[in-house]
Amino acid sequence: MARGAIAGLAMARAGAAHLGHRAQGLARSEEQAEQARLAHEAKLGRILFGALNQLKGTALKASQLLSLELGFLPEGMRQELAKAHYQVTPLNRALVIKLLRQEFGQGPDELFAQFEPSAFAAASLGQVHGATLASGEAVAVKLQYPGMAACIGSDMAMLRTLLQTLGRGSDSLPNATIIGRVLADIELKLAEELNYEHEAEQLSWFGHALAARPGLVIPQTFAHLSSRRVLTMQRLPGMHLNEWLATQPTQAERDYFGQLLFDTFLFTLFELQRLQADPHPGNYLFMPDGRLGLLDFGCTKPLSASFCAGVSAAWSALLCRPCEVQRVQQAYLELGLISPSLSDADFREQLMPALAATQAWQTAPFDTAVFDFGQLPDMPRPDPTRQRQALRYLHSLTPELPYFDRAYLGLLLMLKALGARVRTSNPWIGAR
After folding, report:
1. In sequence order, which ranges of 210-351 are alpha helices (DSSP H)?
2. Contacts of residue 398, Cβ cutoff 8 Å, sequence gap at least 6
Protein backbone atom coordinates (compact mmCIF):
# COMPACT_ATOMS: atom_id res chain seq x y z
CA MET A 1 0.00 0.00 0.00
CA ALA A 2 2.84 2.36 0.83
CA ARG A 3 4.49 1.69 -2.54
CA GLY A 4 1.19 2.26 -4.32
CA ALA A 5 0.76 5.56 -2.48
CA ILE A 6 4.17 6.73 -3.76
CA ALA A 7 3.15 5.97 -7.35
CA GLY A 8 -0.28 7.56 -6.88
CA LEU A 9 1.24 10.78 -5.58
CA ALA A 10 3.64 10.88 -8.54
CA MET A 11 0.76 10.46 -11.00
CA ALA A 12 -1.18 13.24 -9.30
CA ARG A 13 1.84 15.53 -9.49
CA ALA A 14 2.34 14.63 -13.15
CA GLY A 15 -1.31 15.38 -13.90
CA ALA A 16 -1.07 18.76 -12.21
CA ALA A 17 2.14 19.52 -14.12
CA HIS A 18 0.43 18.65 -17.43
CA LEU A 19 -2.51 20.93 -16.67
CA GLY A 20 -0.21 23.80 -15.67
CA HIS A 21 1.91 23.34 -18.78
CA ARG A 22 -1.11 23.43 -21.08
CA ALA A 23 -2.70 26.41 -19.37
CA GLN A 24 0.49 28.44 -19.56
CA GLY A 25 1.06 27.51 -23.20
CA LEU A 26 -1.86 29.50 -24.54
CA ALA A 27 0.05 32.78 -24.73
CA ARG A 28 3.56 31.62 -25.61
CA SER A 29 5.62 32.36 -28.68
CA GLU A 30 7.11 29.41 -30.60
CA GLU A 31 10.53 29.89 -28.95
CA GLN A 32 9.00 30.21 -25.49
CA ALA A 33 6.91 27.11 -26.13
CA GLU A 34 10.00 25.02 -26.94
CA GLN A 35 11.82 26.24 -23.80
CA ALA A 36 8.72 25.49 -21.75
CA ARG A 37 8.52 22.00 -23.27
CA LEU A 38 12.12 21.23 -22.22
CA ALA A 39 11.48 22.51 -18.71
CA HIS A 40 8.27 20.47 -18.52
CA GLU A 41 10.04 17.27 -19.62
CA ALA A 42 12.74 17.79 -16.98
CA LYS A 43 10.04 18.35 -14.36
CA LEU A 44 8.31 15.10 -15.34
CA GLY A 45 11.69 13.36 -15.11
CA ARG A 46 12.18 14.67 -11.57
CA ILE A 47 8.70 13.45 -10.59
CA LEU A 48 9.42 9.99 -12.03
CA PHE A 49 12.88 9.72 -10.49
CA GLY A 50 11.59 10.93 -7.12
CA ALA A 51 9.04 8.10 -7.05
CA LEU A 52 11.48 5.43 -8.24
CA ASN A 53 14.11 6.57 -5.77
CA GLN A 54 11.64 6.05 -2.94
CA LEU A 55 10.60 2.63 -4.26
CA LYS A 56 14.26 1.58 -4.65
CA GLY A 57 15.07 -2.05 -5.51
CA THR A 58 13.83 -3.28 -8.88
CA ALA A 59 12.09 0.03 -9.64
CA LEU A 60 15.36 1.90 -9.25
CA LYS A 61 17.22 -0.69 -11.34
CA ALA A 62 14.62 -0.25 -14.08
CA SER A 63 15.19 3.50 -14.07
CA GLN A 64 18.92 2.91 -14.54
CA LEU A 65 18.18 0.81 -17.60
CA LEU A 66 15.71 3.33 -19.03
CA SER A 67 18.28 6.12 -18.67
CA LEU A 68 20.52 4.20 -21.09
CA GLU A 69 17.88 3.90 -23.82
CA LEU A 70 19.06 6.27 -26.55
CA GLY A 71 16.16 8.27 -27.95
CA PHE A 72 13.48 6.37 -26.01
CA LEU A 73 12.71 9.14 -23.51
CA PRO A 74 12.93 12.93 -23.83
CA GLU A 75 16.45 14.09 -22.95
CA GLY A 76 15.35 16.05 -19.88
CA MET A 77 13.63 12.98 -18.48
CA ARG A 78 16.53 10.66 -19.39
CA GLN A 79 19.03 12.89 -17.56
CA GLU A 80 16.93 12.81 -14.41
CA LEU A 81 16.71 9.01 -14.49
CA ALA A 82 20.48 8.80 -14.99
CA LYS A 83 20.77 9.92 -11.35
CA ALA A 84 19.64 6.44 -10.33
CA HIS A 85 23.16 5.10 -9.76
CA TYR A 86 22.22 4.53 -6.16
CA GLN A 87 24.26 2.84 -3.42
CA VAL A 88 21.80 0.93 -1.26
CA THR A 89 22.41 0.77 2.48
CA PRO A 90 24.06 -2.63 3.02
CA LEU A 91 22.35 -5.43 4.93
CA ASN A 92 23.29 -5.68 8.58
CA ARG A 93 25.05 -8.80 9.84
CA ALA A 94 21.89 -10.34 11.28
CA LEU A 95 20.15 -10.27 7.88
CA VAL A 96 23.25 -11.68 6.17
CA ILE A 97 23.29 -14.62 8.60
CA LYS A 98 19.53 -15.10 8.17
CA LEU A 99 19.80 -15.19 4.35
CA LEU A 100 22.64 -17.72 4.36
CA ARG A 101 20.80 -19.95 6.85
CA GLN A 102 17.65 -19.79 4.73
CA GLU A 103 19.58 -20.85 1.62
CA PHE A 104 22.05 -23.40 3.05
CA GLY A 105 20.97 -24.18 6.62
CA GLN A 106 24.25 -22.80 7.96
CA GLY A 107 25.68 -19.41 8.86
CA PRO A 108 28.76 -17.73 7.33
CA ASP A 109 31.13 -19.01 10.05
CA GLU A 110 30.17 -22.59 9.20
CA LEU A 111 30.18 -22.16 5.41
CA PHE A 112 33.48 -20.30 5.09
CA ALA A 113 36.86 -20.36 6.80
CA GLN A 114 36.58 -16.57 6.96
CA PHE A 115 33.73 -14.20 6.05
CA GLU A 116 33.96 -10.40 5.92
CA PRO A 117 30.84 -8.99 7.64
CA SER A 118 31.08 -5.68 5.77
CA ALA A 119 30.20 -5.68 2.06
CA PHE A 120 32.89 -4.39 -0.31
CA ALA A 121 30.33 -3.60 -3.03
CA ALA A 122 26.65 -2.65 -2.92
CA ALA A 123 24.17 -1.88 -5.70
CA SER A 124 20.42 -1.65 -6.29
CA LEU A 125 19.67 -5.39 -6.07
CA GLY A 126 22.36 -6.89 -3.85
CA GLN A 127 25.77 -6.64 -2.19
CA VAL A 128 29.07 -8.54 -2.28
CA HIS A 129 31.16 -9.83 0.64
CA GLY A 130 34.69 -11.17 0.64
CA ALA A 131 35.28 -14.65 2.09
CA THR A 132 37.83 -17.46 2.18
CA LEU A 133 37.16 -21.16 1.60
CA ALA A 134 38.63 -23.96 3.71
CA SER A 135 41.10 -24.53 0.84
CA GLY A 136 42.37 -20.97 1.32
CA GLU A 137 40.91 -19.69 -1.94
CA ALA A 138 39.52 -16.13 -1.89
CA VAL A 139 35.91 -15.82 -3.04
CA ALA A 140 33.28 -13.14 -3.54
CA VAL A 141 29.82 -13.89 -2.11
CA LYS A 142 26.97 -12.01 -3.77
CA LEU A 143 23.84 -11.71 -1.58
CA GLN A 144 20.45 -10.53 -2.80
CA TYR A 145 18.48 -7.99 -0.78
CA PRO A 146 15.31 -9.41 0.82
CA GLY A 147 12.04 -9.07 -1.07
CA MET A 148 13.52 -8.10 -4.45
CA ALA A 149 11.90 -10.88 -6.50
CA ALA A 150 8.52 -10.42 -4.83
CA CYS A 151 8.15 -6.78 -5.89
CA ILE A 152 9.14 -6.99 -9.57
CA GLY A 153 5.59 -7.36 -10.89
CA SER A 154 4.07 -4.58 -8.80
CA ASP A 155 7.01 -2.23 -9.36
CA MET A 156 6.91 -2.66 -13.14
CA ALA A 157 3.14 -2.24 -13.20
CA MET A 158 3.53 1.04 -11.31
CA LEU A 159 6.35 2.15 -13.63
CA ARG A 160 4.24 1.32 -16.67
CA THR A 161 1.35 3.37 -15.30
CA LEU A 162 3.67 6.24 -14.39
CA LEU A 163 5.21 6.42 -17.86
CA GLN A 164 1.85 6.18 -19.60
CA THR A 165 0.52 8.94 -17.35
CA LEU A 166 3.56 11.11 -18.04
CA GLY A 167 3.20 10.52 -21.76
CA ARG A 168 -0.52 11.17 -21.96
CA GLY A 169 -1.12 14.02 -24.33
CA SER A 170 2.61 14.27 -25.12
CA ASP A 171 4.36 13.44 -28.40
CA SER A 172 7.75 13.29 -26.65
CA LEU A 173 7.36 9.66 -25.52
CA PRO A 174 6.73 6.53 -27.61
CA ASN A 175 3.20 5.22 -27.79
CA ALA A 176 1.79 3.04 -25.02
CA THR A 177 2.35 -0.18 -27.00
CA ILE A 178 6.09 0.42 -27.42
CA ILE A 179 6.44 1.55 -23.78
CA GLY A 180 4.68 -1.65 -22.75
CA ARG A 181 7.00 -3.86 -24.81
CA VAL A 182 10.17 -2.22 -23.47
CA LEU A 183 9.00 -2.50 -19.87
CA ALA A 184 7.87 -6.10 -20.33
CA ASP A 185 11.35 -6.98 -21.56
CA ILE A 186 12.98 -5.12 -18.65
CA GLU A 187 10.70 -7.03 -16.25
CA LEU A 188 11.75 -10.34 -17.81
CA LYS A 189 15.43 -9.45 -17.56
CA LEU A 190 15.11 -8.26 -13.96
CA ALA A 191 13.60 -11.64 -13.06
CA GLU A 192 16.61 -13.31 -14.71
CA GLU A 193 19.04 -11.00 -12.95
CA LEU A 194 17.50 -11.87 -9.59
CA ASN A 195 18.01 -15.57 -10.27
CA TYR A 196 21.66 -16.11 -9.35
CA GLU A 197 21.48 -19.68 -10.65
CA HIS A 198 20.91 -18.14 -14.09
CA GLU A 199 23.90 -15.86 -13.61
CA ALA A 200 26.06 -18.85 -12.66
CA GLU A 201 25.00 -20.55 -15.91
CA GLN A 202 25.95 -17.44 -17.90
CA LEU A 203 29.33 -17.20 -16.17
CA SER A 204 30.00 -20.79 -17.15
CA TRP A 205 28.77 -20.26 -20.75
CA PHE A 206 30.87 -17.14 -21.36
CA GLY A 207 33.84 -18.68 -19.56
CA HIS A 208 33.80 -21.59 -21.99
CA ALA A 209 33.06 -19.45 -25.08
CA LEU A 210 35.87 -16.97 -24.34
CA ALA A 211 38.39 -19.47 -22.96
CA ALA A 212 40.52 -19.40 -26.12
CA ARG A 213 40.77 -15.60 -26.26
CA PRO A 214 43.93 -14.36 -24.52
CA GLY A 215 43.85 -11.64 -21.87
CA LEU A 216 40.39 -12.37 -20.46
CA VAL A 217 39.39 -13.92 -17.13
CA ILE A 218 35.88 -14.90 -16.03
CA PRO A 219 35.52 -16.09 -12.41
CA GLN A 220 34.50 -19.67 -11.75
CA THR A 221 31.51 -20.31 -9.51
CA PHE A 222 31.03 -22.73 -6.58
CA ALA A 223 27.74 -24.56 -6.99
CA HIS A 224 27.58 -25.91 -3.43
CA LEU A 225 27.74 -22.33 -2.09
CA SER A 226 25.33 -20.82 -4.61
CA SER A 227 21.55 -20.65 -4.93
CA ARG A 228 18.88 -18.40 -6.45
CA ARG A 229 19.75 -15.65 -3.93
CA VAL A 230 23.44 -16.31 -3.22
CA LEU A 231 26.29 -16.58 -5.73
CA THR A 232 29.79 -17.56 -4.65
CA MET A 233 32.59 -17.13 -7.20
CA GLN A 234 36.33 -16.63 -7.42
CA ARG A 235 37.48 -13.28 -6.12
CA LEU A 236 39.76 -11.89 -8.82
CA PRO A 237 42.58 -9.53 -7.87
CA GLY A 238 42.63 -6.18 -9.60
CA MET A 239 41.31 -2.64 -9.74
CA HIS A 240 38.20 -1.09 -11.19
CA LEU A 241 38.52 1.57 -13.88
CA ASN A 242 38.87 4.72 -11.75
CA GLU A 243 41.30 3.06 -9.34
CA TRP A 244 43.41 1.82 -12.26
CA LEU A 245 43.40 5.19 -14.00
CA ALA A 246 44.61 6.78 -10.74
CA THR A 247 47.84 4.75 -11.10
CA GLN A 248 48.56 6.82 -14.25
CA PRO A 249 48.95 3.94 -16.72
CA THR A 250 50.94 4.55 -19.90
CA GLN A 251 49.25 5.21 -23.22
CA ALA A 252 50.37 1.77 -24.37
CA GLU A 253 48.60 0.17 -21.38
CA ARG A 254 45.45 2.16 -22.09
CA ASP A 255 45.57 1.12 -25.74
CA TYR A 256 46.10 -2.53 -24.83
CA PHE A 257 43.06 -2.74 -22.57
CA GLY A 258 41.00 -0.62 -24.97
CA GLN A 259 41.77 -3.01 -27.82
CA LEU A 260 40.86 -5.95 -25.59
CA LEU A 261 37.50 -4.39 -24.72
CA PHE A 262 36.73 -3.44 -28.32
CA ASP A 263 37.66 -6.80 -29.82
CA THR A 264 35.76 -8.70 -27.13
CA PHE A 265 32.60 -6.68 -27.77
CA LEU A 266 32.67 -7.34 -31.54
CA PHE A 267 33.47 -11.03 -31.02
CA THR A 268 30.59 -11.57 -28.60
CA LEU A 269 28.24 -9.57 -30.85
CA PHE A 270 28.95 -11.17 -34.22
CA GLU A 271 30.52 -14.55 -33.41
CA LEU A 272 28.91 -15.59 -30.12
CA GLN A 273 25.74 -13.58 -30.84
CA ARG A 274 25.28 -12.99 -27.12
CA LEU A 275 26.02 -9.85 -25.10
CA GLN A 276 26.95 -9.02 -21.55
CA ALA A 277 24.37 -6.24 -21.48
CA ASP A 278 24.89 -4.32 -18.23
CA PRO A 279 27.29 -1.52 -19.18
CA HIS A 280 29.05 -0.48 -15.99
CA PRO A 281 32.76 0.18 -15.25
CA GLY A 282 32.39 -1.85 -12.06
CA ASN A 283 31.96 -4.97 -14.19
CA TYR A 284 35.61 -4.93 -15.27
CA LEU A 285 38.78 -5.59 -13.28
CA PHE A 286 42.21 -4.48 -14.47
CA MET A 287 44.37 -7.29 -13.12
CA PRO A 288 48.03 -6.95 -12.08
CA ASP A 289 49.17 -9.58 -14.61
CA GLY A 290 47.76 -7.57 -17.53
CA ARG A 291 44.56 -9.54 -17.93
CA LEU A 292 41.02 -8.15 -17.86
CA GLY A 293 38.50 -9.66 -15.45
CA LEU A 294 34.88 -9.75 -16.63
CA LEU A 295 32.30 -9.65 -13.84
CA ASP A 296 28.51 -9.62 -13.41
CA PHE A 297 26.71 -11.73 -16.00
CA GLY A 298 23.26 -11.28 -14.48
CA CYS A 299 22.05 -9.38 -17.54
CA THR A 300 22.92 -11.10 -20.82
CA LYS A 301 21.07 -11.23 -24.12
CA PRO A 302 21.14 -13.83 -26.91
CA LEU A 303 20.94 -12.18 -30.34
CA SER A 304 19.36 -13.55 -33.49
CA ALA A 305 21.49 -13.95 -36.61
CA SER A 306 19.10 -11.60 -38.43
CA PHE A 307 19.61 -8.86 -35.85
CA CYS A 308 23.40 -9.08 -36.06
CA ALA A 309 23.20 -9.04 -39.86
CA GLY A 310 20.91 -6.00 -39.71
CA VAL A 311 23.31 -4.03 -37.51
CA SER A 312 26.20 -4.91 -39.82
CA ALA A 313 24.25 -3.90 -42.94
CA ALA A 314 22.87 -0.64 -41.53
CA TRP A 315 26.16 0.64 -40.08
CA SER A 316 28.19 -0.41 -43.12
CA ALA A 317 25.76 1.49 -45.37
CA LEU A 318 25.96 4.56 -43.11
CA LEU A 319 29.77 4.51 -43.41
CA CYS A 320 29.73 4.64 -47.21
CA ARG A 321 30.52 7.97 -48.84
CA PRO A 322 27.97 9.01 -49.84
CA CYS A 323 25.74 7.18 -47.41
CA GLU A 324 23.75 4.41 -49.08
CA VAL A 325 20.36 5.46 -47.78
CA GLN A 326 18.42 2.72 -49.57
CA ARG A 327 20.54 0.03 -47.88
CA VAL A 328 19.98 1.68 -44.49
CA GLN A 329 16.24 1.73 -45.13
CA GLN A 330 16.23 -1.95 -46.11
CA ALA A 331 18.18 -2.87 -42.95
CA TYR A 332 15.76 -0.90 -40.76
CA LEU A 333 12.83 -2.68 -42.44
CA GLU A 334 14.36 -6.09 -41.77
CA LEU A 335 15.00 -5.09 -38.15
CA GLY A 336 11.32 -4.12 -37.85
CA LEU A 337 12.12 -0.54 -36.80
CA ILE A 338 10.09 1.11 -39.55
CA SER A 339 6.85 0.21 -41.27
CA PRO A 340 6.84 -1.09 -44.87
CA SER A 341 4.34 1.68 -45.57
CA LEU A 342 6.93 4.41 -44.84
CA SER A 343 7.68 6.05 -48.17
CA ASP A 344 11.21 6.35 -49.54
CA ALA A 345 10.84 10.14 -49.55
CA ASP A 346 9.78 10.33 -45.89
CA PHE A 347 12.60 8.00 -44.86
CA ARG A 348 15.19 10.05 -46.74
CA GLU A 349 13.88 13.54 -46.04
CA GLN A 350 12.30 13.18 -42.58
CA LEU A 351 13.65 10.20 -40.62
CA MET A 352 17.30 10.17 -41.73
CA PRO A 353 17.91 13.85 -40.78
CA ALA A 354 16.25 13.18 -37.39
CA LEU A 355 18.65 10.29 -36.72
CA ALA A 356 21.77 11.77 -38.32
CA ALA A 357 23.56 13.05 -35.19
CA THR A 358 23.15 9.80 -33.24
CA GLN A 359 24.06 7.68 -36.25
CA ALA A 360 27.25 9.70 -36.85
CA TRP A 361 28.29 9.42 -33.18
CA GLN A 362 27.70 5.66 -33.07
CA THR A 363 29.56 4.87 -36.28
CA ALA A 364 32.44 7.39 -35.94
CA PRO A 365 34.93 4.83 -34.53
CA PHE A 366 34.57 2.69 -37.66
CA ASP A 367 35.25 5.57 -40.03
CA THR A 368 39.02 5.29 -39.57
CA ALA A 369 41.43 2.35 -39.19
CA VAL A 370 42.63 3.58 -35.77
CA PHE A 371 40.32 5.68 -33.61
CA ASP A 372 41.38 7.82 -30.64
CA PHE A 373 38.53 7.40 -28.16
CA GLY A 374 39.99 10.17 -26.03
CA GLN A 375 38.72 12.50 -28.75
CA LEU A 376 35.24 10.99 -28.92
CA PRO A 377 32.76 13.83 -28.37
CA ASP A 378 30.02 13.53 -25.80
CA MET A 379 26.92 11.67 -26.93
CA PRO A 380 24.81 14.20 -28.86
CA ARG A 381 21.73 15.42 -27.11
CA PRO A 382 18.73 14.71 -29.32
CA ASP A 383 17.04 17.79 -30.68
CA PRO A 384 13.53 17.59 -29.16
CA THR A 385 11.82 18.36 -32.45
CA ARG A 386 13.90 15.78 -34.32
CA GLN A 387 13.29 13.20 -31.59
CA ARG A 388 9.53 13.66 -31.75
CA GLN A 389 9.77 13.36 -35.53
CA ALA A 390 11.71 10.10 -35.27
CA LEU A 391 9.23 8.64 -32.77
CA ARG A 392 6.40 9.17 -35.25
CA TYR A 393 8.10 6.76 -37.66
CA LEU A 394 9.12 4.15 -35.05
CA HIS A 395 7.09 1.09 -35.97
CA SER A 396 8.34 -1.34 -33.35
CA LEU A 397 11.34 -2.07 -31.15
CA THR A 398 13.09 -5.37 -31.72
CA PRO A 399 13.83 -6.99 -28.32
CA GLU A 400 17.58 -7.12 -28.98
CA LEU A 401 18.00 -3.41 -29.73
CA PRO A 402 17.85 -1.96 -26.18
CA TYR A 403 20.50 -4.43 -25.00
CA PHE A 404 22.74 -3.73 -27.96
CA ASP A 405 22.37 0.03 -27.40
CA ARG A 406 23.22 -0.27 -23.70
CA ALA A 407 26.20 -2.56 -24.26
CA TYR A 408 27.61 -0.39 -27.07
CA LEU A 409 27.09 2.83 -25.11
CA GLY A 410 28.88 1.26 -22.15
CA LEU A 411 31.77 0.22 -24.41
CA LEU A 412 32.17 3.72 -25.88
CA LEU A 413 32.11 5.39 -22.46
CA MET A 414 34.71 2.92 -21.12
CA LEU A 415 37.00 3.53 -24.09
CA LYS A 416 36.57 7.29 -23.78
CA ALA A 417 37.49 7.15 -20.08
CA LEU A 418 40.54 5.06 -20.98
CA GLY A 419 41.57 7.50 -23.71
CA ALA A 420 42.47 4.42 -25.74
CA ARG A 421 43.63 4.40 -29.36
CA VAL A 422 42.05 1.34 -30.95
CA ARG A 423 42.34 -0.47 -34.28
CA THR A 424 38.69 -0.59 -35.33
CA SER A 425 39.02 -2.35 -38.72
CA ASN A 426 37.03 -5.58 -38.59
CA PRO A 427 35.28 -8.03 -40.92
CA TRP A 428 31.73 -7.07 -39.86
CA ILE A 429 31.31 -3.28 -39.90
CA GLY A 430 32.79 -0.93 -42.48
CA ALA A 431 32.08 0.76 -45.80
CA ARG A 432 31.69 -1.82 -48.57
Report:
1. 241-245, 251-267, 305-319, 325-335, 344-346
2. 307, 335, 336, 337
Cα separation, 312 vs 320, in Å, equals 13
Three-state secondary-structure class, residue 219: coil
Distance, CA of 430 to CA of 319 (rounded, Å) = 6
Return d(Cα 265, Cα 240) in angstroms, integer.
Answer: 18
Q: What is the pLDDT of residue 431?
A: 73
Residue 207: phi, psi to the nearest 5? -60, -40
| Distances from the Cα of 243 to the Cα of 189, 248, 249, 285, 410, angstroms | 30, 10, 11, 10, 18
Beta bridge partners, 230, equal 143
- The closest alpha carbon to 84, from 92, 95, 100, 73, belongs to 73
211 close to 260: Cβ distance less than 8 angstroms: no
For 151-194, write each residue's pLDDT tens digit: 788 778 777 777 776 666 555 566 677 777 777 887 888 888 88
Length of the chain, in residues = 432
C-beta of residue 308 within 8 angstroms of C-beta of residue 270 = yes
Note the pLDDT tens digit of each residue in 377-417: 988 876 767 777 777 777 667 888 888 988 998 899 899 99
Query: What single DSSP character describes residue 278?
Result: -
- Amino acid 57: pLDDT: 67
Query: Considering Cα of 335, then 431, then 261, then 61, what sign does the dihedral take?
Result: negative
Q: Percent helix, strand, coil in the chain (nearest 5)? A: 60, 10, 30
